[in-house]
Amino acid sequence: MKILVGVKRVLDHNVKVRVRADGSAVDLDNVKMAINPFDEIAVEAAVRLREAGAATEVIAVSIGPEKAQDTLRQALAMGADRAILVPHTEATEPLSVAKTFKALAEKEGAGLVMLGKQAIDDDCNQTGQMLAALLGWPQGTFASGLAASGEQIEVTREVDGGLETVALNLPAVITADLRLNEPRFASLPAIMKAKKKPLDSIDAASLGVDLSPRLELVGVVEPPARTNGSVLVASAAELVEKLKQDAAIA
After folding, report:
1. Phi then psi dihedrals of residue 193, to 5 deg
2. What confidence tens digit (pLDDT) does each residue in 40-83 have?
3. Which family does the record assign (predicted)?
4. What is the CATH number of the domain that holds 68?
5. Structural domain span for residue 176
6. What's the rounded Cα separation, in Å, for the pair 74 and 68?
7. Alpha carbons 221 and 114: distance in angstroms, whole number
8. Does 250 fall in a domain?
9. pTM of the model
10. Considering its fold, how many domains does the chain have in total?
11. What is the DSSP string of 173-198?
């Protein structure tokens, strides 16, 4: 079984987000970029399934600029067997990404597609669900546990009442949550080997997919600065009176 795993290049989560002076977008000039944390967990899960004998090949896929090759090389250093870059310089949207993964899943004959539950740059949390609908495959979202068995894979996720486990018939789509695993650290030998692993480039047009944006970004603004708080220590009555003054309570 082949596993297709999505890898998105995003702003490193440790970097403070800056907005361009004209408010048109987030400023990505001269800032550190990294693999989306949820996607990194998905790569680790896919590699573990292959190591356990439940899969034969892990293929990392990214839609983005040429610099996204660095992100794919990181996935290869973690254990992915090969990588595919779909070149695209504009912002991506969940539906077009889902259509691209559908075409690649059918082209590669994948039996499982693994994605992060969301990307930390747009927080859409839509691609996995859209992809499952387009393929007509069962889906397991927000996975915090995986167990493969024959032609099925069990997906555990956290819900309000505890844990929920579902058994999916393969092929299937799974999205990874933070508690699924702890991604491995890519060693120097693994990084060197990753440079020799195949990394192909496939145009979206050859897959029959149009990546042109359908949404217009009107503007980006920073959240308002927090105001100074006040300390109330005299009495509960003083607290209630202050809340009434601020219209927090009637």
Report:
1. -65, -35
2. 999 999 999 999 999 999 999 999 999 999 999 999 999 999 99
3. Belongs to the ETF beta-subunit/FixA family.
4. 3.40.50.620
5. 2-245
6. 10
7. 33
8. no
9. 0.85
10. 1
11. EEEE-GGG--PPPPPHHHHHHHTTS-
Query: What's the pLDDT score for residue 164?
Result: 94
pLDDT over 90 at 204, yes or no: yes
d(CA 87, CA 201): 7
